[in-house]
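Hi, here's the filled form for the chain we discussed.

Project: internal
Contact: R.S.
Residues: 363
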Amino acid sequence: MIRLGSVHRPPLWLLACFWGCSSGTPPVAEGIAALLAPCDPREQRDLVAAEGLQPVFEACGSNDFLHHRWSPGGLRLYYQTGAGPWLLDGSSRALDPLPIGLPVGGAIWFDDERLAFPEEGASGSGVADYHVRRNVLSATPLAVGDLGSLERGEGADEVLLLASPAPGEPRIPHRVRVGSGQARPAFPWLREEVEDFTYRASQRLVAFRPRGREEVRIHDAESGEERLRIPGARRAVLSADGRFAVVEGAEGPASSADEPRGGAAAATAGELYLLDLGDGRRMDLGGIEGSGFQWYDARDYWGSVVLSGIGGRKVHPNLVLIPLTPRLVSAGLLSAPGAEGLSSVSTEGQRPEAESRPPRAPR
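And the returned structure, exactly as it came back:
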């Protein structure tokens, strides 16, 4: 049993796999990928380090990430590749495949032991609940289909699930209590079809992209009041305190016909930037391009993204951690005291506190 409570501050350097961690794809496939897309490990590491990013996996691994999600304590990483779902444990350095089949969308953590994810099969669709330590998998069948994004809800067992209530009907977020077998519309005011969404339960704010649109809208989850509309975006993810959102630019060029509303500026294709939700100020992130951004909530103002480019230059895909506090302080969006403690975080070569010394890497 892993005693996560014994670690006061999650040591992020435990999760940097400079010791040769595998992304889970067989060696033969890795060799084929290397032939098709030559990769210089030193060059990749230099590009990432120049932006202050912390890579989680080796620089030139196969790294075909579909979804990823950090546990609330920050020491476990769930991720899914073409080879299936995997779990990286930062305390033991164990990297194991998960016996949960092939989820059809991203997972969420209820706590540091329990995962939930959407599943579809011959027997129907629903939400599965997996307890990591006990290795117990249970399913909640649902009378909805065409499942997509999954987000954490307000209750201990509540999730928000993108789904269609019946064949041919638009996909909208549904509220599901795992174990109940019931799904109901999460936001009665939201009737148009949704391509993707994120939800921050603590702030009662939802950010969604309507189907067929290259824009993200942020609304009050209860009243439906529109807070912000962001053109040229495919996704926006709200910070825990509701002060900021990280925006992912749309895959195609932003439309000049879409005028910003509420002070937001159009995103460059594929680019990530941070938006102050209070006054609409935009902070560029050094030309970082990627997908699947999420806040690493174990530390204030840290983020995680599947990196695909930096400054217009494509890089080998990798999952990276982004310390945003120094950037926020430099841009005047956060006071300097918020940077305290970041000096103790390192990726390689730093001696950690005795009680948090990293275990041996898997061979």
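Let me know if anything looks off before we file it.
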